[in-house]
């Protein structure tokens, strides 16, 4: 004999019930078919009951909708010729239900017994309708009310199954039944006094397990809306996978810690008989699902699944009077248990100074008042503090049989959560070591589950979630490079890069699953109005792990938002130099936020575009070297200008060309006045460990005073035309001494300067081509022959690739 249970979503619609028929038609052996109420019905019945008891007539609307839904299901499944008997039975059951709800309405109260009676109609109606449908479909089926088989009695105020009586009833009925399919309602039972009882929310799984154990079934099949027990709730973690094989204990632990796919008490009855459980998907019956058996997971993975329970509150009993006094915890747990409050997690510090328990937030008010009352004597004398709860918490648990024989799992768990700025409130590890759990803020659950899942199950594929501001020249190239490189990164570096949000100055676009980079431009153009504050709020509210804010703008306003990102553990990658060249205090504050919140702040492209200048500097210093002197040509724009400027051209035309080809900042004066190079040498000096301000840098300008004083591009260009002779004289002077004009930045002995220089033949700077940059690092290890980094130092493609490199650095972080 086999026992098959179909849950609420499997019976939610007539077409789903047809699927069930197709599934069971393939079986030849006798079947006990346990069904839940149609999806959502139990909740609605409970809601109707509480509305009625609050004397709110709205319960009638719910009743009416429920009746219509059940009648419509009958009409859809059963042919008109045989419908009437079923319809009238359903109607008469609804009449009884109406009377029961009316009772609650008139008395203004609902007792647990009445509530049980009311909700029992969900399963009663579904099982009856399904049995009639199967009979009509010529299956050899019969309806059997579980209330004639499963008997409960009271134990410590709770309804528990009387297995002696239940097993005897089941053996007698099922062993003598001649029908192939017995359709039974899940969830409901009857007390020894003959009153309807229920087995707890999600209890249809338990019904099926009780039957399976009673008849010594070959297998217990739980059919639901997912393809097995997953490594994490698939509704929270997209990457979760069905676990092919798992032990009873692991399954029990996972379900106990919130894997709703199996009601926790379900395992007990079948475990003692060694009956296997298989979890299958009604909507994809071909998938293997999960097999749950006795066999231990000897060779398998250490961590088998991650689960969570939401809506948790934390109660802490603490005070100096607890140390060394026996019996305090006993009293604490006793009062909670007497009030029927179940404790989900316990921790006690070894100082015995406090005991912390996690309970359902629904019980919190009751818990505080009874605990404070029970310890009134100690509280009055200051030995124990009044209990103050904390709410909006959740438990996250790692589960696996083999965890005990592996070191470092909790370290990995907590560092993963820490890296993602998930604050851990309480930690507990079961003595069985099958479980490590912790309590975190409810708002962090999705991030925590996904980060842990990535760490323990995803072959180290790390997802990076990007929020890109600025999609102009550099930004667009950057997106193009990601699009082209995504597959390679996933396969080779195990990095999965997704762009979740993007914005230009006009519009912004978000897609929680990742924006399709093939047509982002049109989508962005049709996006909502750009708003930096809203952008930040959205990034924060998504609360994704490994979030990175990418700034491709040159905007000061954007640079001012970095602290908000870093303070929320969101990394920042930027080619915008403003933040790092602002006041030293701001620069170091951002760096310290990055350290505190484990969120890298990277700006490699601030100096030399894609050239690995800052990264190299960092490595030199980290490995103990000391920077003595830096000499550099750091302006790709100025290089382009002076490499193209001669007595055959005009300075104005060359600058114009540089601007048009994207070699200068949008405001070319920033480059020509030397401000841009000042910022760069300032950043290098700071990164070498010096506390410098921009005002400490000596600037020897080559622009005439008038050009420097313009305040818009038009006037600036006009002034260049006017002062052409000045520029020509700079050129001819250099030419005379067989030198070339280079704009040089220098940092030596704690002092920095920038200015135009005539570089003689043979100097490292002399042959610098096009927009190339060059940096000479003189260090303690490279005192005479400097370390040289040279290459293209401007242009959208190389800058984009430098940003990309920073993203990859974060991926490997
Ligand atoms: P049914 O109505 O069939 O009893 P449930 O809603 O009670 O179904 O249980 C199935 C649901 O359990 C899934 O849709 C899923 O959202 C949830 N769930 C939570 N954790 C897990 C997990 N680890 N594996 C599979 N499902 C899970
Ligand atoms: N219908 C009940 C519930 O929703 C029992 C079950 O579906 O397992 O809790
Ligand atoms: Mg269920």
Automatic annotation (TrEMBL):
Domain ACT, first and last residues per copy: 398-476
Domain of life: Bacteria
Keyword Metal-binding belongs to the record: yes
Cofactor: a metal cation
Protein's pathway: Amino-acid biosynthesis; L-methionine biosynthesis via de novo pathway; L-homoserine from L-aspartate: step 1/3; Amino-acid biosynthesis; L-methionine biosynthesis via de novo pathway; L-homoserine from L-aspartate: step 3/3; Amino-acid biosynthesis; L-threonine biosynthesis; L-threonine from L-aspartate: step 1/5; Amino-acid biosynthesis; L-lysine biosynthesis via DAP pathway; (S)-tetrahydrodipicolinate from L-aspartate: step 1/4
A Pfam family the protein falls into: ACT_9
Keywords: Amino-acid biosynthesis, ATP-binding, Kinase, Lysine biosynthesis, Metal-binding, Methionine biosynthesis, Multifunctional enzyme, NAD, NADP, Nucleotide-binding, Oxidoreductase, Sodium, Threonine biosynthesis, Transferase
Known catalytic reactions: L-homoserine + NAD(+) = L-aspartate 4-semialdehyde + NADH + H(+); L-homoserine + NADP(+) = L-aspartate 4-semialdehyde + NADPH + H(+); L-aspartate + ATP = 4-phospho-L-aspartate + ADP
GO molecular function, one term: ATP binding
GO biological-process terms attached to the record: homoserine biosynthetic process; lysine biosynthetic process via diaminopimelate; methionine biosynthetic process; threonine biosynthetic process
NCBIfam families attached to this UniProt entry: asp_kinases, PRK09436.1
Recorded family membership: In the N-terminal section; belongs to the aspartokinase family.
Assembly mode: Homotetramer.
Described purpose of this protein according to its UniProt entry: Bifunctional aspartate kinase and homoserine dehydrogenase that catalyzes the first and the third steps toward the synthesis of lysine, methionine and threonine from aspartate.
Name of this protein: Aspartate kinase
